[in-house]
């Protein structure tokens, strides 16, 4: 299927590894030019080279820095001739017990996982609407729909972003001008983030890593952790012309782990 986005420009945050990199790769495969961002210079440079080698026909630009910094956000947007696609993504705050989270940790989580995505949306959405094409994807978490106690810090601030998007996506100034905003809620995917979460759970519980991982797998009807490429394929579709009638949606991709009807 031709997704109709060849030649577009995308900004992909936290794209040096994990789900962010996989999304950048899927878009590059579709002929989309990419501006990628991460905080680590070495990993970001390596990701840039891999993307260029994968599809030499697309432009790949890297911007190093923390997206909580307004100047970094502006640099991301300025790096592209125009931003047609925005993939908001950031590593979540550390798992743990709510009694241990400090005020500074709460504020950092809000800045990273709620306010920074909102500010990036603010920088690009009006221009998207004026051109009659825009796709904004927020990578949040399956915990927004099915909370995990250890991820309470992450879940809380991502729910804030989800609530904000629910109203913004339905404004006719954007929805009627082919500018959509959707959230993807990943379950357990084979990433470093999952490994860190499982390790933290093991340390708190006194169980082995393998035991904790086995319990998590047992909760997934498909009996496996997700492949980041599967996540990226959904992301690429939501960026397509074919997905023009979808906005304000929260799409859960978790191997069937969520037990509810809706």
UniProtKB/TrEMBL annotation:
Signal peptide (residue range): none
Keyword Oxidoreductase (UniProt): yes
Pfam families, sorted: adh_short_C2
GO MF annotation terms: 3-oxoacyl-[acyl-carrier-protein] reductase (NADPH) activity
Keywords: Oxidoreductase
EC numbers on record: 1.1.1.100
The UniProt record lists the keyword Oxidoreductase: yes
Entry similarity comment: Belongs to the short-chain dehydrogenases/reductases (SDR) family.
Protein name per the record: SDR family oxidoreductase
Biological classification of the source: Bacteria, Pseudomonadati, Pseudomonadota, Gammaproteobacteria, Pseudomonadales
């Amino acid at each position: 299927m031709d997704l109709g986005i060849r030649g577009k420009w995308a900004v992909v945050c936290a794209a040096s590894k994990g789900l962010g990199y996989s999304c950048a790769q899927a878009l590059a495969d579709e002929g989309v030019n990419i501006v990628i961002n991460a905080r680590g210079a070495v990993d970001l440079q390596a990701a840039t080279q891999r993307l260029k080698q994968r599809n030499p026909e697309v432009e790949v630009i890297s911007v190093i820095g923390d997206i909580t910094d307004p100047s970094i956000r502006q640099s991301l947007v300025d790096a592209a001739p125009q931003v047609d696609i925005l993939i908001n993504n950031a590593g979540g705050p550390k798992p743990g017990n709510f009694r241990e989270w400090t005020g500074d940790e709460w504020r950092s989580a809000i800045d990273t996982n709620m306010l920074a995505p909102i500010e990036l949306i603010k920088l690009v959405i009006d221009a998207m609407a004026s051109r009659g094409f825009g796709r904004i994807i927020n990578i949040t978490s399956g915990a927004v729909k099915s909370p995990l106690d250890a991820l309470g810090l992450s879940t809380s601030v991502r729910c804030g972003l989800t609530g904000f998007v629910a109203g913004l996506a339905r404004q006719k100034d954007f929805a009627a001008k082919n500018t959509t905003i959707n959230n993807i809620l990943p379950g357990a995917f084979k990433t470093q983030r999952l490994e860190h979460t499982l390790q933290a759970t093991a340390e708190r519980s006194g169980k082995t890593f393998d035991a904790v991982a086995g319990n998590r797998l047992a909760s997934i009807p498909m009996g496996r952790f997700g492949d980041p490429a599967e996540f990226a394929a959904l992301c690429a579709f939501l960026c397509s012309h074919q997905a023009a009638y979808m906005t304000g949606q929260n799409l859960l991709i978790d191997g069937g782990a969520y037990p509810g009807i809706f």
